[in-house]
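Colleagues,

For the teaching module next term, I've prepared a clean inverse folding example: a structure given as tokens, and then the sequence designed for it. I'd like students to try predicting residues themselves before seeing the answer, so please don't circulate the second half yet.
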């Protein structure tokens, strides 16, 4: 069973064109428009867990980062196929 944060995250990503990312605040606002700020740590935790198992990419400066060692402003997107897969 997925959490409301995970559900909101994948709903937002499904609404975006392929390869586009979402802001963690958008995810939190989807879950709780009034108290979204208190959900930001939970969004980050869910994102890190999903990135560790390969279901999500965490981006800084539009580049994937190690989910175990990032800080600061970040965005989230679905994993992208390798550039040489075409």
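(Answer key — instructors only)
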């Amino acid at each position: 069973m997925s959490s409301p944060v995970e559900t909101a995250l994948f709903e937002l990503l499904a609404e975006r064109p392929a390869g586009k990312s979402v802001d963690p605040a958008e995810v939190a606002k989807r879950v709780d428009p009034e108290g979204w700020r208190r959900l930001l740590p939970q969004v980050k935790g869910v994102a890190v867990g999903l990135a560790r198992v390969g279901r999500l990419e965490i981006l800084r400066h539009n580049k994937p980062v190690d989910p175990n060692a990032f800080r600061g402003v970040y965005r989230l997107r679905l994993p992208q196929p390798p550039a040489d897969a075409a």
